[in-house]
Every structure is written in C-alpha cells, then in structure tokens.
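Continuing the batch. This is chain 6 of the set; chains 1 through 5 are on the previous pages. Same settings as before, nothing changed between runs. Recording input and output for traceability.
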Amino acid sequence: MSAASQADVADVVIIGAGHNGLVAANYIADAGFRVVVVEAGAEIGGMTQTTATIPGAPGHLLNHYSVDAFFWDAFPPSRDLELERWGLRRTAADPGHLYLHPSGASIGFWADVQKTVEEIRHFSAADARAYAEFTTTLRAFSALAFTLAATNPVRPDARALRRLARIGFGSRRELGAIVQLVFSSASELIADRFSHPVVRDALHAAAGSTVPNSHNGTGPAFLWMSTCHRHVCRRPVGGVRAIPDALARRLAGRGGTIRCGSPVEEILITQGRAVGVRLAGRGEIRAARAVVAACDPRQTLTALVPAEALPEDLRRRAGSIPVDNQGYGQLKVDLALSGRVEMSRHQRGRRDDIDVRKPSHMIGTEAGIARTFARAGAGLPPLAEDELSIWPVIPTALDPTQAPDGQDTVYLYVAAAPLRPQGGWAKHADAVADTVVKRAATYYDGLEQLEIGRQFLSNDDFAARLGASGGNITHVDMAMGRAGPMRPARGLGGYRTPVDGLYLSGAGTHPGGGITGAPGYVSAKVVLGDLGS
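Output for chain 6:
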C-alpha cells in the first residue's frame, strides 16, 4: 500500500479538532489504534483557539471564544494525559475570579474558601456565614456532579457507582440542600441566603447562567464556584489554545494524524455501519473500526448522516435538539491595546496587595443583569446605561507573552445578549461593540484611548466560523432537560448512535460545555470498550 493510500485509511476517524476531539483521539491512540482527526477549519482548537487577527496588531493574541480553563483540573484528562510533558505551561492566579462592583468595591473568589468568607465579612457577617454554609453544599454537590460527569450517563461504570454511594452517604446531611440547588433558580438561592446588596450583586454576576438567573434549574450554574475553591485557577501560557496544541503534539507522538481544512461532507455508511467520511473536494478516509463525531450532534445527525441511516422518529428528534438557548445569546469584544490598562479605582478599594488586573473579572448588578436579559429576550441590544453581565479578562496581566512588551489585550465576554436582534447583527454590531467598550471603560482606566483595534463576535459569527448550529457555544443548550442521559436527545445520551461504529462526542454530549475534556474522555472509553480494549 502506498503512503498516500495509507493516509486515507485509519482505525478510527474523529471529526473535529477541538479539545474534546483531541482528548478522545489521544485516549484511542494510546490503546494502539490508528487515529485520523479531520478538522473543517484551517487550524485546530475549535472553541479553544488563540490567534492574532486584529489588523494593525499582529503581536496581540486573542482568545477568540474561551479564555479560562477553570474546569480542566477537575477531570481525568488533566492528569492522565500529562500535557506538561508535551509543552503545556500554565500560570496561576489566586483569587482566580474577582467581582468588580460599580462603587469600586470588589470580592475575590479564592481557592481557600475562608479567604472568600473573610472578604464577604467586610460587607456582612451574616452573609459570610451563609457563604461558608453554601460552599459546603456546593462541595458535596460538585463531588457528586463531577463523578457523574466522568462516566457514561446511560451506563455508569461500577467504580463511579461505588464512589457515588460513598459520597451520598458522607453528604447525607446536605442532600436536601443539594436537591434545592439542582431544581431552584440562582435568584432564589441567592435571595434565600444573602442580604447585602454588594454580595447579592456579586453572586448574580457569578452565577454564570446563559438564561436569566430567575429561571428554575439555573442553580447548578454555581458549580464553577466549587471548582474555584477546589483548584487554583491556572491559565495556559500563550493563550487557551496551548491546551489543544499540547494535545496535538501528544497525538503526533502516538502516531495520530490531524488534517485541517478538511470539512466532512458525509459520514459513509455501508450495511448499517459507519465506515469512514467523505471530505468536501478532498476524497474519502476509511475507518476500519469507528467514526467519532466531536462536532455538534444536531449537524452530525441531520446533515452528515444520510437520512435513510436513522429511524424517522430519531431523525426528527435530532432535528429538534435545542440550540437557540431560549432566544438568549452571547457576544464578545476583544481589544488590542497600545499600552497597559489599569484599574486604579478597584485597586484602591482593596484591603490587600493583590494585583487586581490578574484574576478573571465579573461585572454586573442584580437589577442591571435582569434588565439586560429582559432586553435580550425581546431581541433588543443592550443599553449603555445598563450594568451589563460581563466576564472580562486581561490575559496579558497574567501572561505578558500574548502581546508586545508593555501592551495588553482585553477579553470582554457578554453573557446576556439577543440571539437574533431585531434587524440582525449586521445592523447592530458596531453600536453594541461601542456600548460594551464604554461600559468596560468605567472599570478599566483609559481603555478607549489605548485601543488599537477590536474584534466583535456574536452567535452569528460563532456559527459562521465554527459551523456550530445556531452559534451555540456549548453545541446544545445547557438545560436540565438536556443533561445526563438526555444530552443531546432521548436515545442518544450514551455516545453510541443507532449506526454501528458511529459515536457522538464534544460539548453537545454529556457532561456538556466548558474546557473539561470530559466528553472526549468518556466517549473514548465507550469506543474502546466496544472495540474490546
């Protein structure tokens, strides 16, 4: 067989070179299988890309979608794959997150819960006690959640079931509070426990919901706070793409191959079995053992799999996988700056000597966030006078390698925006970007004056750039009805599909979005189990 034809045959073909696809590829290659990863884009990374794209700022690296990997250390790939041996370097910030109040006050969320409690005590002794109690519940909930997240939700492995039993028994006093956390709204959880307006504002900004905090079932969004207290926040040096880059180097070391610029046109199926992929204008790659689709499952099942390969009811179900987040979207603005941005008001407001530039920041107030979500749900762009729900980061504060000496980049992620604004994003993009930057400039000194250039991204851009259905950053809505065995849809929750040899992976499968590697890890274990490894 020639070298060219060898390259067109693999044991396992994986669609999508985001971090989950690459995690799955590494585990499968470790088991001795020949793996080829095909990626539609020109570069690897998916939602974990870092490149310089602002005209006039070629030395300013942008983290286009994700920037923080605060869930990474909570899951097996961070330990199993030993990416530090493959060039991954990270630098730590503690507190990892800092809430910025409009008054100049701030609250740091430290790895040490007690440090966070003491910060809250400056505002309210009662709220400090309530936070300590709340984190006890979060700790118990996260132990259960992370155990479930690292196993097949349809057929949990025996080790996970034993661990769940031990955790449940040890946390039996917290079970009532855990049930309340799972089914309540973030707003209800906050109102039940906290009274000081600054503390309430901080927790509303920290909730991390992609729908209004008042919606039932948004309580689990506080899960990230538990990871904040379990692990020191560490950002990859060189930008978040350092994670997929290390995964790619490791995969190459195991004999795996990645082909970028290779969009899949069709998943090939012969006699009810997936046998490879047809690339748009670039031939076919045959898969002797399996095809793993780490792209979004709605696209996989409705566009890449031939219609006749799925039962009609399952195909209809796949076409109804929710990707519109109930009409709420997200957007972001990246800035390249000619100098170093300061935060003098919030630096003066601290009672310690931490550099407030280094943590990830949270901006917003309870009332302002509610108004912004209300406007977003009605298809209306945010107003300049609103306290927007923004999660900003100054990546260069912790990692100066991402810009020229003495210069910064700023990442402004807006958690509440219309998915489809009236008149379309082409009409509103420039004005909305201006609104976001003006609001951010009330927290970051001289932001507008230092700006060299910017990048604006909406869900439309996420869809166009990444091919994700609806531009959904988690591929499938993160909702209670799409969790565990119901993610992405009934009958598809265990990574297997009705097509022999075809598996789902990525953020649209259990346990969902975030830089965790968990969907790639669990799907690889399922594939390897079926292959007898």
